[in-house]
Amino acid sequence: MARIQACKKPMILVDGLSARFGIKAELNALVTMTGFPTLTTPYGKSIIKEDLVNFHDVHLGSVGEVAHQTWIAERDLVLHFCPLNSDANTFGFTTMPDPNSTITFDYNSVRMSAADEKTANGRVIPIKSALSKLLERLRTTKIPTPDRYPEKCLSLKSMLKHLPKPAESSIFDQYSFWLVVFSFLRLRDVVMTETGTAAYGGQSLILPEDTVLINSCIWLSIGYML
């Protein structure tokens, strides 16, 4: 709690195992309550409500804008939830935050820093219980106002807004397609993106609430995304 109160440049990073561990509701409450800038990994996309003002899409690591990378590197506190640190899920291991400024929450453990053991004195710390207690404490705690996410890093909604209107004879291009096709999605849809183009394009989908996105995040082999 002291680190949350003292931070000036925080970030919440949500990975896909969070949904498997049953903490989606708690995470959305945390993101809303703190106002901390929040990103997900490719595997974590669809866990956080994408209409929250402090949600900033997928952490793109080394393939993101320079402003995105610089902002990430400046974080003095990262709350990292349920990481799956595969090559495919971390853009070649470039989205993994500095362990010295990271508190990592896993299924039965909380790691406070790079040198910290996974559990306190060998005790199991269930993540759902830990998050519930954290939320309870935060309700009576003064939470610092975080610095803002860079305006240079356009949100998916901003990118969609600035898309030029296509001519009748225009061909589909990948950049436009993934931004526009979201309009076909409905509440509680399940979206499956095959390995390859769709896996990366799907990260640019603007998802309705309670949509579930399934992609390949452990290893990449076309035709075997499940």
Can you describe what's shown?
- This protein folds into 2 domains: 2-138, Rossmann fold, CATH 3.40.50; 156-214, no CATH class.
- The chain has a 6-stranded mixed β-sheet, with no helix packed on it. The protein has a two-stranded parallel ribbon with strand order 7-8.
- The protein is globular, with a radius of gyration of 18 Å.
- By secondary structure, the chain is of the alpha/beta class.
- The chain has 8 helices and 8 strands, in the order αβααββαβββαααβαβ.
- It has helices spanning 2-6, 17-20, 24-34, 66-73, 127-138, 156-161, 174-180, 197-201, and strands at 10-14, 38-40, 55-58, 77-81, 102-106, 109-111, 190-192, 212-214.
- 31% of the residues are buried.
- The mean pLDDT is 91.
- Helix content is 26%, strand content 14%.
- A hairpin with a 2-residue loop joins strand 5 and strand 6 (109-111).
- Its cofactor is thiamine diphosphate.
- This is Pyruvate decarboxylase.
Q: What distinguishing features does this structure have?
A:
226 residues; alpha/beta; Rossmann fold; 2 domains; 26% helix; globular; pyruvate; Pyruvate decarboxylase; thiamine pyrophosphate binding
Question: How do the strands and helices of this protein lay out in sequence?
Answer:
Blueprint: H1 2-6, E1 10-14, H2 17-20, H3 24-34, E2 38-40, E3 55-58, H4 66-73, E4 77-81, E5 102-106, E6 109-111, H5 127-138, H6 156-161, H7 174-180, E7 190-192, H8 197-201, E8 212-214
Parallel strand pairs: 1-2, 1-4, 2-3, 4-5, 7-8
Antiparallel strand pairs: 5-6
Helix pairs in contact: 3-5
Give the terminus-to-terminus CA distance: 38 Å
The biggest beta sheet is recorded as: 6 strands, mixed
**Strand-pairing-aware structural class:** alpha/beta
The succession of helices and strands, N to C, reads: HEHHEEHEEEHHHEHE
Q: Specify the number of helices.
A: 8
With strands numbered from the N-terminus, the spatial order across the biggest sheet is 3-2-1-4-5-6
Radius of gyration: 18 Å
pLDDT average, as an integer?
91
Low-confidence residue ranges: none
**Assigned CATH architecture of the largest domain:** 3-Layer(aba) Sandwich
Count up the domains.
2
Find the CATH superfamily of the largest domain: TPP-binding domain
Share of helix, binned: 25-40%
Shape: globular
CATH class of the largest domain: Alpha Beta
- What fold name goes in the CATH topology slot of the largest domain? Rossmann fold
**What is the total tally of β strands?**
8
Beta-strand portion reads: 5-15%
